[in-house]
Amino acid sequence: MGRRSLSGVSKFEVELKTVDIILIVFLASMTTLEILFRTNVSGWGLLVIENVAIGFTVIMMSSIIRKVHSPVLRSTGNIVLYLGTLSAVYNEMGRIIHLIFPHFHDASINNMETALFGIQPTVWMQRFTSPSITEFMMFAYVVYALLLPVVAVILLRRGTEREIERYLTELVFTNLVCYTFYFMIPVAGPSRALVAERIVPVQGYFFTAISEYMVRSVHLNGGAFPSAHCAATVVMFAALYRHGRHWGIAFLPMALLIFISTVYGWFHYVSDVVCGIGLAALCLRIAPALQRSLSRWYLRINLVTGRTVSPEVVHDKQVLEETV
User: Which of 108, 114, 137, 222 is positioned for an S-S bond with 97, CB 3.0–4.6 A?
Assistant: First the structure.
């Protein structure tokens, strides 16, 4: 791969991948908004510090992982890094839900769906509730969290590092777009906004108990629209389908079950699911072009002298094409 020569010797190089740049731009945008709307954010100063810490961690860890010789260890490190970063950013969204709007928009969604279907779909699905069905649905909802790294492992065992990188880039990009909607259009979700209409008690077993714990301890009050759960499921399906049609077909029933479980379990409205799926499809179209564009640039920093070395252009066209 031909590269323009650089003056000076760098003792430690920071090479930003597409997913790193996406994360840094998002964190920088969140920091700017938190400063601009600081009167609406409790502890905004701490959030700014956390954003800087997350960004610094991503840059440093990504550069360290890149120097690992084993492809398996490199890919494993990237999976842990970016899924962990998504979790940290998701938790932050819970503190800035009302960054711009002080109220939720559930009434608008409820009115629209009631007018369209004649009844609120989440409420209507109560007629099918039973402990066994609830347990089955909650299994699908809970196992989603395990599927995120499992899909990456499948790609790693039978594919290449570039497939892992593309999957993680699409996953991070799609989730961050969903997170942006959380404070742009805060929606509490059926479990909080339609409490008075929930006449059938939740009864199930092991996975039902886990899902109830997730609602109490993990779910954001206001992070329902669009469904990042469903959006990420589409990204997983796309990655598996690219890897091999049979993998995608095998995953499709689980994907459909996850979509249904989000409504059945009162986690999301039908609108959240539809918009999550549509948004993921759009992000999957944008991500390859974004990756082709951003993968041309590498930022190298000499940490010994503190001197920033100018970006360099990657000239190897084949490498760029293989990236996506």
Answer: 222
The helix (run of H) or strand (run of E) holding residue 299 is: strand 297-302
Indicate the helix (H) or strand (E) that contains 173.
helix 161-184
DSSP 197: G
- Nearest Cα neighbor of 224 from 101, 92, 105, 108 is 105
pLDDT in tens, 163-200: 899 999 999 999 999 999 999 999 999 988 998 898 88
pLDDT for 310 beyond 80 = no
Phi, psi of 300 (to 5 degrees): -115, 130
Q: Which residue has the tokens 């993968």?
A: 295
Which residues sit opposite 301 in a β-bridge? 308
Using DSSP's 3-state secondary structure scheme, residue 322 falls into helix
DSSP assignment of 108-142 equals HHHHHHHHHHSS-HHHHGGGG--HHHHHHHHHHHH
β-bridge mates for residue 313, sequence order: 297
How many residues in the chain?
A: 324
Q: Which residues, in sequence order, are CB contacts of 2 under 8 Å at separation 6+? A: 315, 316
Token output for 127: 């007629």
